[in-house]
Amino acid sequence: LVWTSVGGEVQYIEASHMAGKGGGLLLTGQLGDVIKESAQIAVSWIKSNKHRLTPLISEDRASVLDKSDLHIHLPAGGIPKDGPSAGVTMVTCLVSLLGDKRAPSDMAMTGELTLQGHVLPVGGIKEKLIAAHRCGVKTVLVPRRNIVDVIHDLPATVREEMKIIGVKRVEEVLTHAFGIKMDPPPGAKL
Hints:
Strand content: 15-25%
Shape: globular
Helix content: 25-40%
Structural class: alpha/beta
Largest sheet: 3 strands, mixed
Number of helices: 8
Radius of gyration: 16 Å
Order of helices and strands: EEEEHHHEHEEEHEHHEH
Strand order of the largest sheet: 3-5-4
């Protein structure tokens, strides 16, 4: 989910892996510096936590990270894209690719990802969720600290017709996206 000057939009993200030097990351779709950093953070989080992701990604599939290059593409390349809010979506897209699992097609998400796996609040929640509703999305994952925006700014009809889940950590995002319980690392602040 993205915010634009004319309102919210649903933005799809694609990923693939290919033969290469290993560890390379190609980013396409007219991306700005901040969204490129979000992609790098998503890859780094997966690499540093791949041992904990075995319920979702087999060790053999996780080796793709070291042997192949990754490509993340945001379609509609003629439209510039930037901001941190695609972080959780990028990590989910990469886990889907590496684990050969699909997130529900009627689910959307937004949130900035940190290297420690925290999901930070983002702007434009009202516009993003209205766009998701308009596109038939049934479940939306948002940063828990943005729930106050959902309560105060989002029209009641939109709130009532979608399941809106507040998340604090990326493990919660992955649990909801793939239906496999992911626990945060020992000692992680919730």
